[in-house]
């Protein structure tokens, strides 16, 4: 089975400017996804899709093949699914057809090979259209989440459900950016990931940090340094 890894990294970032090339423990954030993918023998190619010249340079330096993303697919309001379709078409045109698409967002530097392999194996052993990674949520819409109305009036999200203890609430999970696995055919024939049947594999919180702002970045840096010290 031909499997290819894709990292989608825009130059723009509102929460943490230039985060994809920001140094995390001495290495560009982007490099963690590339390095992990290149260590895994199942990936025949590792691509980085970007419109940004600096990101493209870093990607090349760390051994990835750069896909030049059109500017219209790299705006703040651009649908990343369209970038997935663009990358799949580019990859097929450049390197021929393949069987399994794996997105490894740059914002999850703490993932390990086992996490990615687990998602790939789950996808391949199932009849699902895609497999994602999840982690236990620290907040539940069934117990401790509210909406604010007029004059900041509080309404319980699960209004109408008589759940009085956290332990009684249904378990919910956050989608992580550790890995997304699907097929090129599904991407090209559909308008979004959840247009199909999706399964998931759990990832521990310590490896599921998704960097969106400086707080996330500092947390990832602390966990990464701790892991290196204990290695």
From TrEMBL:
UniProt entry keywords in alphabetical sequence: Nucleotidyltransferase, Transferase
Entries under InterPro entries matching the protein: CMP-NeuNAc_synthase, Cytidylyl_trans, Nucleotide-diphossugar_trans
UniProt KW Coiled coil keyword: no
GO MF annotation terms: nucleotidyltransferase activity
One Pfam family matching this protein: CTP_transf_3
Cross-referenced PANTHER family: HAD SUPERFAMILY MEMBERS CMAS AND KDSC, N-ACYLNEURAMINATE CYTIDYLYLTRANSFERASE-RELATED
Protein name per its UniProtKB record: Acylneuraminate cytidylyltransferase family protein
Source species of the chain: Fluctibacter halophilus
């Amino acid at each position: 089975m031909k499997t290819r890894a894709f990292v989608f990294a825009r130059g723009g970032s509102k929460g943490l400017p230039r985060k994809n090339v920001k140094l995390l423990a001495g290495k560009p954030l982007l490099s963690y996804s590339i390095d992990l993918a290149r260590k895994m023998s199942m990936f025949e190619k590792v691509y980085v899709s970007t419109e940004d010249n600096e990101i493209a340079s870093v990607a090349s330096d760390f051994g990835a093949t750069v896909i030049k993303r059109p500017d219209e697919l790299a705006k703040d309001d651009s649908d990343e699914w369209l970038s997935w379709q663009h990358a799949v078409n580019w990859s097929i045109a450049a390197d021929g057809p393949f069987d399994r698409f794996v997105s490894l967002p740059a914002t999850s530097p703490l993932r390990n090979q086992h996490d990615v392999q687990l998602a790939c194996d789950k996808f391949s052993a199932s009849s699902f259209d895609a497999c994602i990674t999840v982690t236990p949520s620290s907040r539940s819409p069934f117990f401790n989440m509210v909406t604010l109305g007029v004059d900041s009036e509080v309404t319980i999200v699960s209004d109408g459900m008589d759940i009085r203890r956290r332990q009684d609430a249904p378990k919910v999970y956050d989608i992580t950016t550790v890995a997304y696995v699907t097929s090129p055919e599904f991407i090209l024939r559909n308008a979004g990931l959840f247009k199909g049947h999706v399964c998931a594999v759990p990832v521990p919180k310590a490896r599921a940090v998704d960097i969106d702002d400086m707080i996330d970045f500092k947390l990832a840096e602390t966990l990464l340094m701790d892991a290196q010290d204990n290695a």
